[in-house]
Amino acid sequence: MKFNKNDNSVLKISLVLIICIVMWGLISPNSFGFIGNKALSYMVDKFGWLYLSSMTVFLVFSIFLAFSKYGNIKLGDDDSKPEYSYISWFAMLFSAGMGIGLVFWGVAEPLNHYINPMGITGGTENAVNFAMKKSFFHWGLHPWAVYSLLALSLAYIQFRKKYPCLISNMFIPLFGRNISKKKIGKFIDVLAIFATISGAATSLGLGTLQINSGLNYLFNIPENKIVQIIIIIVVTFLFIYSAVGGVDKGIKILSNLNVLMAVMLLAVAMIIGPTSEILNNFINGMSNYGKDLLAEVNPFGKGDWYKSWTIFYWAWWIAWAPFVGTFIARISKGRTIREFIFGVLLVPSIVSFFWFSTFGTMAVNIGYDTASKAIGKTSTAFFIVMSNYPYGKVISIIAIILLGTFFVTSADSATFVLGMMSRKGKLNPDSKVKIIWGIVQSLLALALLLSGGLKMLQTMSIVAAFPFVFIILGYIVCLVKFLREEKIENEVKEKIRMFK
């Protein structure tokens, strides 16, 4: 495989960095874990306020922009049309941004908050309200605001301003058009690749563990390394095949299938579950969530619970932003800024609220003692809860299949994005690059899974993504500069047209 020397320095640096991280985790997992944990603890203790306040800024700015005078600007030429229907667009951005996480945490998170709530007695009605409110908070508007802001900026520069889709290129107003060739630009792009592949590999590992746990719980298939290796090999073949097929042939079809299966799973669960309680918790959860949004504005004085949950989640969503944002940008040509923000913020958030209301209610409804046992192992919590309901085994089988399809979609989206990032923002990177990244992320997941360092990879990716707090804050400044310049240019053109 041949690359132009000027084109692949980011690719080379990224590969070397990732190989070094993997070797460190394999050769010395103790030091790897010690340093990673120390770094994460320091970051959460010292900069938790920064995460909390920044996430609020991202959400407020996104909403402001949607209602601003720039809302009608298209992500593309004025006469451009969206490449994908609303259904396919929502399906792809949802599959890339949340899919596998909802299946993994849809039961486990509400159960954790129900058994061990902050400041109140577990297993009570107040604990149920707390569980729903916090699950909504962690999976609602805030993470999608991060994705929306980064994706909107990248879509604007590539489709409106005609610059390559690189994380670094958004800083053109501050550093000039050649930023991607400068050291600071290369540093930003390497950091984005590292965060992307770390997050993708972690999801591959977590998905593998849950699929294996589900197969073990339902069919007594052994829960061991051999089975997990087989799962990764099968999934790797599928997602590389899908990624090589491109967005239209592979990723779009699988994403549409994901949404169809997710809706079917959700509908069946609502029917066999305590339907009235589910709807009641959805309404109460929305009400409490709205109140909680205002209460969370103050970023100071938060305790250990926030460090373990909210701040950790905020760090994790920011770590995922380069991957999800780049992919959402790629599929959003032709949308207006207002349409884009409302679509990315509201639709996935509402789906997440329904999801947690349904599966969270089913979880807390099985009783405190059974619920306490269910959260003993996160990867089997879903299947244990479903076993307490009629047709629970059917739901569990559908969930395993959905895990697999979400698994493939997240991985092939990441592979596609990594190809773009390492090929100067090329919208349709060549198959060889996608195959390389597909194999690398699977090997990374496999290596860390076998060495027991999967959680540490997650920790390291969150630590490494810390600079993205400042990068996304910088995006706000640069996007405003771009939009103001465009407005001035349009006013000048209009005056010239009037005088002619």
From TrEMBL:
Signal peptide: none annotated. The chain crosses the membrane at residues 9-27, 47-67, 87-108, 136-157, 187-206, 226-247, 259-279, 311-328, 340-359, 394-421, 433-454, 460-483. NCBIfam families: bcct. It is a multi-pass membrane protein. Keywords: Cell membrane, Membrane, Transmembrane, Transmembrane helix, Transport. Pfam families: BCCT. This is Glycine betaine transporter. Its main location: membrane. GO terms for cellular component: plasma membrane. The keyword Ion transport does not apply. It is found in: Cell membrane. The keyword Hydrolase does not apply. Belongs to the BCCT transporter (TC 2.A.15) family. GO terms for molecular function: transmembrane transporter activity. It comes from the Bacteria.
